[in-house]
Amino acid sequence: FWCNTDEPFDNQLGSSSMSSWKEYKTADGLEYYVNETSGETTWDKPEELMDAGELITGEYSWVPHPDQGYVIAKIKHEAKDGTRQIETVDGFSMEVKLGKTDKIFPKVNFASLKKHMDDLVQMQDVNEATIQYNLKERAKKDIIYTNVGDILISINPYKLLPLYTASVMEEYWHGNTEALPPHVFTIASDSYRKLFEDKHNQSVIISGESGAGKTEATKVVLQFLAEVAGSTSGVEQRMLSANPILESFGNAKTIRNNNSSRFGKLMEILFDPKARIAGCKIQNYLLEKSRVTKQSLGERNFHSFYQILSNPEQRKKLQLGDANQIPYLNQSGCIEIDGVNDGEDFEEVTHAMDSLSFSAQEKQEVFNLVAAVLHLGSLHFVEDGQGSKIANANLLEVVSNLLQVPSFMLGQELTIRQFQGSASRSTTYSIPLTPSQASDGRDALAQTLYGNLFNWLVAKINTCLTPQGNPGQLRMIGALDIFGFEIFEKNSFEQLCINFTNEKLQQHFNAHTFKLEEQVYKDEKISFQHVEFIDNQAVLDLIEKKPTGLLILLDEEIVVPKGTDETFLKKLNQSHEKNERFKVNKTSRTTFTLIHYAGEVVYDVTNFLDKNKDTIPEGIIDVMESSGSSLINALFPPSSGKAQQESSSDDAGRGRGRGRGRGSPGPASPAPAAGGKTNRKASLGAQFREQLNQLMITLNATEPHYIRCIKPNQNKKPASQDFDGMMALRQLRYAGVFEAVAIRQTGFPFRMTHVDFWKRYRLLAPTAQGSNPKDTCAVLLKEIGKVKNTSAIQIGQTKVLYRATQYRDLELLRNFQIEKNSIIVQAGNRGWKSRIIYKRVNAVRQQLRAAIAKRDLETIKTAISAVETVDFAPKENIDAIALRDLIIEEIRVTGVLKQVLGEVAMRKDIPQALLDRLKAVVADADAIGFKSNEANNARAQYTEISDRITTRALLQKSTTDSDEDNLKAGLAKAQQLGLSDTEATVAAAKEELARIAKENEHVRDLKSALSIDRLNPGLQISSQPGSKGQATLTAQAKQDLITAESAADRFGCKTAVGIACVKTAQVVLKVRRALENEAFEEVESLLYEASKLPPGTILDAPELKAATDQVQTRAKKADVQAKLESAAAVFDGATLAFELGKAATLQMEVEYYTDLHNNIVHAQSLISEGLRLIEQEPLEAACSFAESFGYNLEDYHQAVHLRDVLIGLAGEIDHTLKILESREQMTELYNRAVGVGMHTAPLAELGKLVVLSEEELTKRQLKAALILNEKARIISLNIKLKEIFFEQFGNTFKINECSSIKTPQEYARGKIFGKEKTRLEMMNWQKGGIHASLTRIDPLLQKENKDAVTLFKNLIGYMGDKNLSYPQTLAREIIQRGIETPILRDEIYVQIIKQVTQNPNPESAKKGWIMLELCLSHFPPSRTFENYLEIWIRQQGESRSKLRSVLHEVLFSGAKTSAPAAEQIPA
After folding, report:
1. Least confident segment among 439-453, 735-749, 799-813
2. Could you give the percent of the chain with pLDDT greater than 90?
3. Minimal CB count within 10 Å: which of 100, 293, 626, 1300?
4. H or E element, residue 428
C-alpha cells in the first residue's frame, strides 16, 4: 500500500477501526496487524481476523501440571480439594490437583508466545509459565543460551553444537557482544574486558544440578580466557591441562550425568599488568568421598579407577583384576559408559600430568594409592572368636606393599581398636572389632586415602601454576563451578552443606542484582522506585548463627558425652520450633524441615554426627605415618609429639569416625585433610563454614557474572527432542531465575544508548534533530508521542530506558513504517529497472521492423545481432530470423537455376544427370514458394522434357512387347506432344498396332476352337463318375482346331494372348492324339510338361482338364501319398520333390509336402552358406528357419554349435569394448575369437586396442568408465593416468614450488620477532598459531585472510596441539568453511600438510591424517594445487595410498553441500 513518509503519524494511523484489517510479518517472522482503512497497528490479532476457536482464547490460562510444568488450558470444573478438570488447547481433557503454592496465570497471550526472546526480562508477558515456555521453544531450535539481563541461562543440549570454534570465539572477542546472541563467551569476554577497564577483580559463578553442564561451561570459559589472553610462559595451556586430572579423580558417572563433578571448585585465573595469564590457583570443596566405597545402581565410582584398569601395563604392575570382580566397582552394575574410552582418557591424564611437571615417581605413587584403595575394598573380614580376622591375608600384603607400610601393623589396626583409659591418658586398651566394624574402618580408610590424594593433586597442580613476579600487581578472574541446590527423597548432611552454600550464593546473587540494577538508574540519573531486597538472612542465621545455629549445635553435640543424632535433633527442635523457616516433624524421630529460598527440604539426621567428625582412628594414622612412600608421607605428615587431647574419654572412645560423605577441600599445599594427632581436628561442618566464608569474601571482592545451568531431562537426550518442563521449572526456581526476572521487570529492562536508540527508531520521525544525541532522542520521542504515549520512556545520561509496553509500541510503529518504506523502495527500483529494459528492447524491436521492411540481408543480420544485447528477445526477432533464412535460400536457388537452365539451352539431347539437376532445383524452388522468372521457366522446361522422354519409352517398350493398350495410349500422348509420325518410334508403333489387328482374328478362331470363352457346340465332356473328363468331338470340331492352329502358326503370333492360344492348341492336339491311342502315360507326361510352364503360357482349355481327370487313378494317389509321408519323416528333400511332381499331375492335395520340400531345400541352402561364411547373422537365420519346422539333421547341429560360439564371443567382445577391461583379459578374448575364424568389425577393433600403449589404453578405459559412470573405476584409472603422468613429470610438482603457496620469505614478512625461524619452519609442524595465511590470498579479502589464521587454531585444537573444548566441532567448522569458501581450500590442505610434517606427537599426527581424509572426502583442492597435493600424498608411502582414491573421488563428485555432524567425526 502507498505511504507518504512525510505525513504526520496521527494522520497515518488515525483512530481505531474494526474493518479492513490485514496481517503482516516482521523481518524475524512475527505477526502484526494493520487496519488499511484507519492505519491503526497492533500486535494482537483483531477479532475480525480470528476464527471461532481463537475468539475464545481469553478463556485459556497457564495451569500447573505435574509433568510439563505448565499447560495452556481452560478450567472446566474446580473441586473443593483443589482438583481441577481442565481442557488443554490441543483438546485433551485431564485432571490436575494444585498445591497451596501453585499459581494459575490467566489470559494466555498467544501472539507473545511466538516471540522467543534472547532476554527474558524483555518478554511481554513474564511469569513462570512463559519463561519456561520461552526456554523450551528456544531449546527446540538448539538455542541453548538465554539472558536474564546480565545473567546467562545455559541449557545442556546433550549433543555437540558448533558454538565453541575459533571463529565463534573470534566473533565474541572482537565483535559487539551486546549485538550478538547470548553465549557463555559473552560472559567470559565481559569479565576479561572489565578486569582491566574497571581495574576490579571479576568472578564467573556457574551453578546448576548434576548434569546441567557446569563443568563444560567452566571449561569453555577457561578456554576463551586462555585463547584471548595467552601468556608468555605457556601457563594457560598448563591451566587447561589441569582439567583432565581433576575430572579423572573428581568426576564420576551418575544417573543424571556421565561426567558429573563430585566436588566444587573455584579457579582463580591470575593476570599480569599486560592482561596476560600469569598463573592459576584452584580451591576445591566437598569431594564426595562416600562414592569411593559405595555407588547407587547404574552409577560408577570415580573415573580414575576405571582408567587405570584400562591400561594393561599398570593393571599388571598393580595386580588388579577385572572390574567386575572388585567390590568397590561392581556393586552398581555399571562398569562402562557408552561413547567413553577409558584407555584414551588415561593417556590424556598421564599426558596432562607430564605437562604439569609430575615426576615419574609421583605418577606411579598416585596409581599405587588408587590401586591400594581398590584392593582395600577386596579385603574380607570373618569372625575370629569375639573379634575378626582378614580371610585373604595375601591381599593385605598387596595393599601394604602399595602403601609401603608394615602389613602386620595395618592388619592389626583394621581388626583391633586402641583406646585410652578415661582415668589415665597413658593407659590404653584394645577391643577386637566385629567383621562389620572392621569393614566400616576399612571403608573409612579408603575414603580418607582417596580424599587426601585428591587434595594433594589440587595442591600439586597449584604449585605448577603459581605465578611469577609481584603478587600485588596481579588481577584475578575467579571461575566458580559449584553444585546446585539439591532436594532428594532422603537428604543428609551432604545436602545440608550444599544447600547452605546455595543459600549463601543466592544472598550474594540477590544483593548484587538489586545493587547493580539500582546503580544503573543512579548513574543514568532517572527517577525510579526503590525495589525491596529479597533477603534470605533468616535461613542463613538458622544454619550458622551462634549460639543455636544448626551447624553450631551439631559441633557441640559431637563433643558432648553420649551425644547422638537423636539428641542433636531434640536440641534442634527445642531451639527453633518457633522459627518460621524451621518445621518440627512431629511424626518422625529422625527428620526436620528447613524452608529454603528454593523450597522446603526434609533432612534426615541419621549419621549427621559421624559425617561431621570425618575422622579415622589414631592407630591407622600411625601406620600411614610410618609409610616409606613420599606421597603417603605428604598425605599423613608425622606428628611432632603426643597430642594434647581436648575431648573427653567418651569422645575419645568414639574416635573411629567413619569418614562418610563429602570430604573437606584441600589446603594450599599437599598437606592432609584427615586430621592428625596434634590437636583435635575441626569438624567437617566447621571447616566448611570457614571455607565458605572465605569464598564469600573472595566473591564479594569481585564483580560477579552469573551462569545458571539447566538440565533439560533425566534421560540425557538432546534438549531439542526432550525438554522436561517440570524439571526445568524446578531448576529455574532453585537458581533464583524468577527472582532475577522480577528484579529487572520492576525497573527498566529495555536500555539503548542514545545513538543506538536514534538509529533504530529515526525512521519514525526522519526530521528529528537535536544539538546532541540526548537532545535528538528527546525530539524523536516528542514526535512519536503524537501517536503513542511515550511519557513512561526515560532519557538517562547515556541511555534511553523503558519497559516492555513501550518496547512493543515502538517496535510496532517501526515495523509498520519499514513495511511502507520497503514497498516504496521496491516499487521504485522495479520501475526503474523495467523502464531501462523496455527502452533497450523497444530500440531493438524498431531496428528489427525496419530491417524486415527493407528486406536487405545484411541489415537483417545486424538487427538480429542486436537482440543479444537485451534481456529478452521481442517477437519480431522470430520473423527476422525466418526472413534471413528465406533470403539466403532464394539467393542460392537463383544461382543454381541460372546455371542449370544455361546448360539445358545449349543441348539438344538432355542427359539424365542434367535432367536430375533440373528436377532438384525445381523442388528447392517449390519448397520455398519461389516464383521468379527463372523458377517458372525451369518448371515448364522440366515438365516438357520429362513428358517426351516418358512417351518415347512407352512406345518403344509397347512395340517390343506387342502391347496393344499401351501402344494406343502412347500414340495418343505422342500426338498431344506433337511428335512427328515419321519419327521411327511413332512409325514402328503404328505398324505394330496394324499387325496386332490382323493377329486378333487368328486369336478369335483359336479361342472358339478351344472352347476358351464358350463351349464349342461340337465338344461334349462327360461328368459321370466312371468316365469323368471323357471328351466327344465332331469331325468339324476336330478340324476347326487343326485349321486355326495351322493358320496362326504360319502368321506368327506375338501378343501374349496369341502365343498362349497357339501353345494351348498344340497341347490339346497332342492330348487328343494320345487319348485316341489310349497312351495315358503320354497324356500324363503332356499334362505334366504343360503344368511346368510359366503361368499364362497355357490357357485353361476344357479338354486339358478332362484329360487330367481321366488319368488319375486311386492306386497312383495311394502310392504317391505313402512315399510322401516316408520322405517327410526323414526330411528327404529329393524324394519329396519327385513325389510332389506326380501329385501335381494327379491334382492331389499336397500343399503340406510342397511347403516342407521348399523349407528343406531353403534350410539346407542357408546352413551351407552360414557354415561357409562363419558369420553369426547367416547362422542365426539358418538355425532359426530350420527350427521353425523341426529340421534336425547333422548340418543343423553343426550350425547351432558354431552359432552359439560366435554369439558368446560377440557378446564378450561387445561387453569388453563397452567397459574396456584389462589388457590381459582383452588379449585372451581376441585370441579365442581369431581361433574359431571369427572376422567381425568389433573383433578388429579389439585387436587394435590390445596393442595400444599403456597410456593410450588407460585413456580409452577412462572414457568408457565415464560413459558407464563407474565411479570406483574412474577414480582408479585417473590415479593410474596420474601415476603415468607423475612418472614423467612428477619432479615438476614440488609442494614448496606451488604458485598458490607463499614463499618462506613472503610468509615471514609479517613477523617482527623470530622471522628466520618462521621462514625455516614454514612447512613444518608448530605448536602455536600462525600469524598469516600459508597460501597467497588476495590482501583485499580481509575476512578470508583472517579466517585462514582462525582455521589453523581450529586445526591445532582438533589435533590436540592446543587445549580447546569440543574438538569435533572445530573439525566440522574447518570442513564447512572449506565447502563454503573455495578460496580457503588450498589453505586448509597446506595447513594440514604443515602439521603432519615432522610432528613429534604420534597422536597429533594421527588426528592430522584423519583431518586430511575428512577434508578430501568433502571438498577438492584447486586445479592449481591438485597435482602438488597428490604428489605429496604419493610421497608419503603406500600406507597413505587410500588418500589418493579419496582425492580423486572428490575431484570426480565435486564438493559436498555440508559437513558431517560433529558426532560423526572421530574425537
Report:
1. 735-749
2. 42
3. 100
4. strand 428-432
pLDDT at 645: 32
- Listing DSSP states for 156-211 in one string gives --SS--S-SSHHHHHHHHHS-TTTSPP-HHHHHHHHHHHHHHS---EEEEEEE-TT
Residue 302 DSSP one-character state = B
Is residue 324 within 8 Å of 213, Cβ to Cβ? Answer: no
Give the C-alpha distances (Å, rounded to integers) separating 1402 from 314, 763, 1396, 1405, 1409.
21, 61, 9, 5, 11
> Reduced to 3 states, what is the DSSP secondary structure of residue 801?
strand
Tell me: the pLDDT tens digits for 13-23? Answer: 333 444 588 88
Q: Which sign does the torsion angle of CA 821, 822, 828, 832 carry? A: positive
Q: Which of 1181, 1127, 1191 is nearest to 1154 (CA)?
A: 1127
- Residue in this structure with the C-alpha cell 504515549, named with its chain if needed: 789
Per-residue confidence (pLDDT) for residue 532, from 0 to 100 = 65
Q: How far is CA 257 from CA 340, 712, 1094, in A?
A: 13, 12, 108
Q: How many of the other CB atoms lie within 10 Å of CB of 580?
A: 9
Please list the alpha-helical segments (H only) found in 1010-1092: 1035-1051, 1056-1076, 1080-1092
pLDDT of residue 53: 55
Residues in the chain: 1467
Task: Print burial letters for 1363-1386: b (CB count within 10 Å at least 16), e (below 16).
Answer: bbbbbbbbbbbbbbbbbebeebbb
867 alpha-carbon distance from chain centroid: 44
Distance CA 1429, CA 1432 (A): 5
Say whether pLDDT at 306 is over 60. Answer: yes
1026's grid cell: 466312371
| Stretch (H or E) spanning 248 | helix 235-250
DSSP 1301: B
Q: Phi and psi at residue 1313, in whole multiples of 5°?
A: -115, 150
Please enumerate in sequence order all residues whose Cβ is within 8 A of that of 1408, keeping only pairs 6 or more positions apart, or say none.
1355, 1359, 1392, 1395, 1396, 1399
Q: Which long-range contacts (CB under 8 A, 24 or more apart) does 524-533 make?
A: 524/794, 524/796, 524/797, 524/798, 524/799, 524/801, 525/796, 525/797, 526/748, 526/794, 526/795, 526/796, 526/801, 527/794, 528/747, 528/748, 529/746, 531/743, 531/746, 531/747
Q: Helix, strand, or coil here: 337?
A: coil
Tell me the residue type at 377: G
The secondary structure element, H or E, covering residue 557 is helix 550-557
| Phi, psi angle pair for 595, to nearest 5° | -100, 95
The pTM assigned to this predicted structure is 0.66
